[in-house]
Amino acid sequence: MKFAICNEIFLGWDFARMVTFVARTGYEGLEIAPFTLGDAPTEIGPLRRRELRMMVEEAGLKVTGLHWLLVRPAGLHIAHPDEGIRRRTIAHLCSLVDLCADLGGQIVVLGSPEQRRIPEGMHPEEGWRRAAETIAACAEAAAARGVFICLEALPRTQTNLLNTNAEVMKMVEEIAHPNVDMMLDVKSMCAEDISVVENIRSCRGRFRHVHANDANLRGPGFGAVDFRPIFAALVESGYDGYVSVEVFDVTPDPVTVAEESLRCMKRCLPSPVG
């Protein structure tokens, strides 16, 4: 199992400074929110993409992938009744797949709660169908670049589509493409009706990425969530990918959050047997 951190908690930092700090702190991966790279991240040229990737890799890190995919530009939506908006969303997602691959990543995490919310007045089944069609339309582009589109369950307090891992698995099965998969988010699992450990076990062999955060939106170790059984369940499930710290409340500061979250996760890893 490897540890990564999402870069938006360092918003305002110079990219090189951020990469150096993340590597020195002991993380192995960096997960990037495209909006942190500028207002038009998909328009970043080949030279700058190579520069960013080189900075990450020369520090001994790897870009795990992208998340917060649909924040910018405004007006994107995977289930919108306007076909033109859905087409623009598909084009944007495909462009982000290219950006992800160019930066050395393999995963794009589709969260973006507002940009997937089923609009008022639309039947839930219609919203589900349109969202699934939009995601499926990006699958071949992802396959061509060796990237996986990972759907993320989000609580009902944030959106009204794909609120549980069971619902995510159902959509993944309906799309039935090897490059459309799921990921797990601890904060979101805390909002479900089953325990986080049971949830992980029910998704065994089905998820490709993990976000680590407390139910209070802070980092691991900054709240009441016990990560020891969570990591035990991940190990039991055979997961050996990245666990990426995703924090929404950067209290008291990014440096402390990054350092203490990593210490907590390392403490919570099960001791090797034998």
SSE string = EHEHEHEHHEHEHHEHEH
Query: How far do the termini sit from each other?
Result: 18 Å
Q: How much β-strand is present in the residues?
A: 5-15%
Output the strand order for the largest sheet: 1-2-3-4-5-6-7-8
Tell me roughly what share of residues is in helical segments.
40-55%
The CATH topology: TIM Barrel
Alpha-beta content class: alpha/beta
Total domain count: 1
Radius of gyration: 18 Å
DSSP helical segment count: 10
The CATH top-level class label: Alpha Beta
Concise summary:
The chain is of the alpha/beta class and 274 residues long. The chain is built from ten helices and eight strands.
Structure description:
The chain has 10 helices and 8 strands. With 274 residues, it is an alpha/beta fold. The protein has a single domain, classed as Divalent-metal-dependent TIM barrel enzymes (TIM Barrel). The chain has an 8-stranded parallel barrel with strand order 1-2-3-4-5-6-7-8, surrounded by 6 helices. Helix 9 packs across helix 10. The longest helix has 20 residues. The two termini are 18 Å apart.
Question: What attributes does this structure have?
Answer:
globular; 8 strands; TIM Barrel; eight-stranded parallel beta barrel; single chain; 10 helices; 41% helix; alpha/beta; 274 residues
